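cron nightly-structures :: item 1 of 1
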Amino acid sequence: MRIAGLCLLLIIISTSFSRVELYKDYCNPRFDFCIKYPSTFKNTQQSENNDGATFTSKDQRAQILAYGRLVVEDLDKLEQEFGFATDKIKIHYKVMKGSWFIFSGVDTAGNIIYQKTVKKAVNYMGDPGTEVFQTVRISYPPSQQNEYKDYCGIIAKSF
C-alpha cells in the first residue's frame, strides 16, 4: 500500500513539473496583462514603446503576438476593434460578449488565426480608469493545428 501511494505521489510530482515547463509567462506592465506562451517559442521582438512582444516557434511558421493599446475615448468600440482584427480573415468561429471577443479563422496566406481581445480599465501611468485593448493572437499553418489547438484554449482563458 505504501509503495502504491509513493508511486502515485511521484507521478503527480513529475506531471506537475512537466506542465510547468510547457509554458513561460510574458507580462506587459504598460498595459497590465500577462499571457502564457509555449516554452519552445522565442521572444523575437519586444516593441520599442513597450506595447507588446512577438514570439516565434522554432520552425518560424507559428507566431504569437501579445500587445495592448490605448482606447481612444468614444471612438474605439469593441465592434470596431473586431472589424480591424478580422480584416482579410475568413471567420470560422466568433464570440463577442460585453468587453471581449474571440475569433478563429484563416488569413489570406492560409494560416489559422486565433485571437482574443479584451477592453478594460487599467492603472495606466497613475490613472486607474484608463481603458485599453489587450490582445493575444496566434497564427500557424493548418498542418500544425494539432500542435497548437491546446494553446488556443489557454488564450481563451487569458485576461
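cron nightly-structures :: done
The chain has one domain: 23-157.
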